[in-house]
Structures are given as C-alpha cells and as structure tokens.
Amino acid sequence: MKQRNRFLKKYPYYDSSLPIEQRIDLLLMRLTLKEKFKLLSGRVFSWWKSSSIYRLKIPSLNMSDGPHGISFHSSFRLMTKFPCSKCLSASWNPHLASNVGAAIAEEAKAIGKQLLLAPGMNIDRTPLNGRTFEYFSEDPFLTKEFAVAYVKGVQSRGVGATIKHFIANNQETNRFTVNVQVDVRTLHEIYLRAFRDVVREADPLVVMGSYNKVNGIYACENKELLQETLFNLWGFKGFVVSDWYATKFLKRPEQAIQAGLSLEMPKAIVYTLKRLKKAFKEGLFSREELDAVVRRFLRVLFRVGLFDEKPRKSFRVKVNSPVHQELAQHVAEEGMVLLKNEGNFLPLNINHIKSVGIFGPFSSKKMGKFLYGGSAAVVPPFEISPKKGIINKVKEHVKIVKKPAEADCCLVFVGISHAKGGDCENFDRPGLSLPKQQNDLILEVVEQNPQTVVVLINGSPITMEPWLEKVPAVLEAWHPGMMGGNAIANVLFGVVNPSGKLPITFPKRLEDSPAHTSPRSYPGSDSVFYEEGIYVGYRHFDKKSIAPLFPFGFGLSYSKFSYKDLLLSSSEIAGSQELDVVVEVTNDSPVAGAEIVQLYVKDDEASIDRPVKELRGFKKVFLNPYETATVNMTLGSSDLEFFDAENFTWRTEPGSFTIFVGPSSRVLPLEGKFEFR
Ligand code: GLC
Fold this sequence. Notes:
The chain is α/β, with parallel strands linked by helices. The protein has 16 helices and 26 strands.
C-alpha cells in the first residue's frame, strides 16, 4: 500500500479513482513543452505506435489496421479474416457489425493493441474506387447504421475505434494530392452525414484525417472541417490522427495545430521539433492551442486504459477462435446476395446432383496475403476456398468432374482480385467489367452446359452483359473471408437461405454512374469536381430515371415475401414528434427466410431540389414458412431534413411527405402520406 501511495504521489494521474478530465490536467501540467511536441507524432522507427514519455510513464498508444480483422502488416500475426465491409453491409444486419467490431477488438487486445484503425466509412461515389470493398455503402443512412454498430462493438471491448477517412476520400486516383471540390450542401448531406451521426451516437475515440484536400485545404489542416465542424458543431471529444504520411505536403505546424490535428503518423513531418519550436517561438501558435490538441490525445490514452493501475480485464480470447471463425462464416452467409435465380435453379439438391464441375480462377484463389489489397489485408491461419467448401459439403455424395458437359451442374467462380486495378488501395479500377478471360470462361462453360451458376468474388460492382442472360443463377459472394467456401456451399445447397441485399447500385454501364459525366468529375487532375452534388448512387439513377443492372437494396431469396397493411401512427407530425410506420410482411413459402424491409421517404413539396426518395429505415425480419410479422419503424424530423447551405443549418420544411415501403429501392409496393407541420 505504501508503495502504491508513493507511486501515485509521483504519478497522480495513474489514480483511476479520479475523473479522467482531472487526470488529464494532472498530467498536462507536468509535461514540458518539448514533451508535448513529442506526443504530436508517431514513435521513431515504429509505424504503429505513438511516442512514449519515459520520465512521466506515458506509454505508447499501440494501433493496428483494419476493418476486416487485425492486419498482418500491423501485427505480424495470423488473425481471423472476416468478410469485407461490403459483405457485412449487404447483410443489412447491423448487429453483425457490432459483433465483428467486438471480435476484432478482442483480437487487438489479445496482442496488446489499444486502437483499431477502422471502420472505413467513406461514401461510394464511383464504383471504380479501389477501396469500395472496404466501405459500407453509397447511402449515408445505411453507412451510418453499420458504422455506429461497428464502433460500439469495437469500443465495448475497451479498444478505440478510428472512423476514416475524414473526409471525401472517395477515389484512390491521386489520393495524396487531389483537391475535392464539393459544394457545402453535398458535403454535409452526403459525405459528412454518417460521420456526424457516428460521432453523436457512438462516441468514436479517433477520427483519421484523409490524404486529399477539401475545397482547397488538406483535410489534416482543415480548420473548418476539424475545429469548426467535427469539434464545435458535433462535439467530438477524441482526437484526430493523420492518415499515414497524409501530412507530407503540410508546411506550417501552426495551421495543423489550429485545425486540431493531434497525432501525425507514422512519423513527424510537419510536427518536427525544429518546425514546432520555430513556430512557437515566433508566436504562430499559443500554448493553449497546443494544449488543446495534446489534451484530446491524452483523453484517449486514459479512455483505453493506458493509465490504469491494474491492466483492464484483457479478454482472454485466443485469436482465431472457432467462435470468431463461426462469426466470419455467418457474416459471409448473411451478406451474400442472390442476384438471379431463374426457375428456382438454386438451391442445388445434394440428393439429385450426381456430379458438379467447379471452374474459374476464384474457385481456389487465396485472398488473404500480406498487404494484398492494401492496409485492409488480413492473413488468416487458413482459408476455406469455394472449391474446398463445396467438397466439404458434398463429400462422397457428388462427383467433381473436370468437363462442363459431364456435370449435372457447373459452378464458375469469377471476380475481382486485390491486385493493382482490382479491389485494391491506392489504385482505382480501370472499368466495371470482369477481365476478358473470365467473361470468356463463363461463355465457354455455359455453351457446353446451360446448367451453370456464376458465383462472384468481388467487393465492388461489375457489369455482366456478355453472359448474364445465358446463366440461370448468379450469386454475389463478395470477399467472403476465411470461411467463405463453407458459406458459399451452404447457400448454394440451401443449408442457408440467402438474405443479403445490395448496399451499392450495380450499373449497366459505367457512364450511367453519376461521377462519370466528364473527366472533371472523375478522376479529375489536380482537382476533382463533385458536379453531381447530392445525386450519388440510387439518388442519381432515380433522378435521371436510369435503369441499373441491379438496384440498391435488391436481393432475392429462396422464400417469397409479400407486403400489406401499411399503417402510419398519424397523418401529421410536428417538431420532435415521431411517426410510427407499421407494415405486415408474410413469408408465402415453405422455406424459412429473412426479408429486409426498406423504408424510403420523399419530400413532396420541397422548395429546393431533393432526391426522388431517400432510405430512412430498414428492418431485417426472419420468418418461418407462411409466417407473418408486423414490422415497426419510426421516423422523426431529422429523417426529413436537408442541409440548407445558405443558412448553414439542417432544416425540415413543412408540407407533405410520401413514405415508400418494400423489398428494394425499385420495388416499393406500399405507399403512405403524412404532413410535417
Ligand atoms: C493507409 C490507409 C489507412 C490505413 C493507414 C495505415 O494509407 O489509407 O486506411 O489505416 O494507411 O495503414
């Protein structure tokens, strides 16, 4: 006891019985100016740690990528490889995001990491973005629902989450320097909206500043975005870290400090001691401004338990536990989207099928390799390929044959790799088509055997015109993670009824996409112009009445569902009143399944241009055969608002609104109207 008292006398901020804000003060007052400067950048010779201060027993904050599991390059460990974020959001089941976040955080904690550099939550503006597989959706509401759940999951384990990349990092082409020119309404209504809601609803500990400029100023020194919006308008209490080397072109430390950048990773470039001392000496920034960014950083160190006298109950989880592997498989199963199923070709009946042919470069391709696809790469201890999964499933019941004509059914596994030009950081895709040899392979197989199913292994939209009409079934399996093969087999053979829906529009052709109207709008050069404004994704396809290949929110099932009896709790709401929306959904089939009921809202009398409809609610309901469920959703005024750039505020105009409810953004059988007063 005496020893503890002596220790706390010297280091009082280690006393976890004191409030955190008081502990921060106790530590801040002890830091010299030079030590504060040192805390502003990463630890020398370490990519994943902040600087430590031995004299005051300030440990390093130890961090790791990424959204799909603990990345090998930031841990040098083989860890559970979860499905990609597109697969996760295609489940439209945010509980899974919470579970995945918690599982990855447990694995982070098990290897002594306190900060996870995830989730990535940028909006899908162009389907060519190399990092589309790492992000949730083209829609801010769906993005927010998943990001909130993911952050809460991660932080429920005492590990910090990092929402990234703030902001408008929507392409990889010229990502380090591109200047995103975007109007204020679009910035708030589309690109900032999910980040705002996550800050308010999930209290993320860290925000990662992006590489790009926004309206002329680099994100990491953008005072309007950080200080004025993130801190002052939204009340963010954590700290801002730069993306790795995102400060490369920053010249003035005072600008980054006054904007609110607390930590420059992986090393000092703009926050070198020399630059900081000179700027401070010249009075370019004040001690108060410096303390403000250091305080934010220290707050997170305290919140993740780095100053706890006794280390927090570390989740004695074995990494790569069967529990985590089962979760990875379950997410893959729930995220798969059945895009086509002519004549109920699927599910395959293992008792009727005597032989199956397995073709395509993705039938046995290993996807979990070092930095493969960039910083989201996870290297698992093993990986169940689609072929392995099929063999695990059919065992000796079904013969695997090599010739398409000899098979009762052919399975062709094609997709997008994580190589440059594929689903890969730092590069965008050259186009939407699969590689020619893959399209040719599908045509060749289906020519020899019309009983052919195409299974897609990808994390971003693709076009399918050469072969789509010729095959009876197409299953979107995304990048399904280390258990993907088992998940695919379970869906193909009907052990699992597919329930995923597209979180992103699949266009018929690239030029139908909103970002692809001119070289200015994509990829741009020094600047890229978001000329489409708020009309991103389905908002654009609706506005221009363009038929997509497969619409946002689309997905088939082995069950059949019907909708009836839409009821609204009132014909009008005012102020903070909420509107209850009730609908009856029935499973009209003998097969248990899950339906994702979607709710879209239209402002019938807006004084400004608004989308035809916007997603404002969804519920995933699991229904037994012939079961009917009553689905309840709620709308509030914040679901009706738009960003009024002139007055720089969110606003809901009084007037009539229409509600649409149905199974996809293009199939909305039920409608209702109400007035907002
Ligand atoms: C990368 C990525 C970011 C990642 C970081 C560390 O460039 O943009 O998402 O967390 O650097 O690897």
